[in-house]
Design brief:
Blueprint lengths: L1 E4 L6 E2 L19 E6 H15 L2 H9 L3 H22 L8 E3 L12 E3 L5 E7 L2 E7 L3 E7 L3 H7 L5 H9 L5 H19 L18 E4 L3 E6 L5 E8 L4
Helix pairs in contact: 1-3, 2-3, 4-6
């Protein structure tokens, strides 16, 4: 494990579909390309594109959401993902060949999503009204979380690494929800990058709760991402040998 000053990551907001320069894939310096999608600003574009851009499984998942707000955020995030992948790969968004790798635990095809036959790595996370996307030349994971109520942070915090639990216990009550959200975003970003998700116990890896530094397992960098007030986010990228 190593502790270092976190890099400052600020995502670019995906616009309303107006013409502009196509995005460029990140280079080999280990820095991911980060994009933010706000449902309220991208909703109309996503709704118009969904029928031709999303595949059958994505449309099925969207339809399964009971709340319109959740459904619209899902659609906005996935249309945004395909739009950006299409721009990176010079393909129509609906033609981007997405598939899932085998699960790390059971071998079934519901592991990390990938572009078939292409080395670009990506990750998508969404919460109420916001989606965060990351693209990199190495395995990458991203997560965005709303800062929860104190009671939620206290309950969910029991699943963390023992050192992280101790750190949260030392926080003032007013600071504890943000500290929990910060470490949980780091945790989920790292586990998504690994490809295990929460199939790997959150208690196994120490990532720390400090606001300006993250602890990363060997072979990874983990950094916070600047997003809207009331939210916290993180990105994890595999380094050489990771």
């Amino acid at each position: 494990m190593r502790v270092r000053k976190s890099a400052v990551h600020r995502p670019v907001e995906l616009g309303d579909g107006s013409a502009g320069e196509p995005p460029v894939l990140p280079g080999g310096d280990g820095r991911p390309a980060l994009w933010l999608v706000r449902t309220d600003r991208f909703r109309a574009v996503a709704a118009r594109a969904a029928a031709t851009v999303l595949d059958a499984e994505e449309r099925r998942r969207a339809a399964a959401f009971r709340r319109a707000e959740d459904r619209e955020t899902y659609v906005a995030g996935h249309v945004g993902l395909r739009t950006l992948l299409g721009a990176y790969l010079e393909l129509p968004p609906g033609d981007v060949p997405l598939e899932r790798r085998p699960c790390s635990f059971c071998g079934q095809p519901h592991g990390r999503p990938v572009v078939r036959g292409n080395p670009v790595h990506f990750s998508l996370s969404h919460t109420a009204g916001l989606c965060l996307l990351a693209f990199a030349t190495a395995p990458v994971g991203v997560d965005i979380e709303g800062v929860p109520a104190l009671a939620v942070a206290a309950e969910a915090g029991t699943a963390l690494h023992p050192r992280e639990i101790a750190e949260l216990d030392r926080c003032d009550a007013v600071e504890r929800p943000a500290a929990f959200a910060r470490v949980w975003a780091r945790k989920e970003a790292y586990l998504k990058g690994l490809g295990t998700g929460l199939g790997r116990a959150p208690s196994l890896d120490y990532l720390g709760t400090a606001p300006d530094a993250a602890t990363a397992p060997p072979g990874w960098t983990v950094d916070d991402v600047t997003v809207d007030q009331g939210y916290t986010a993180a990105v994890a990228v595999a380094t050489a040998g990771g």
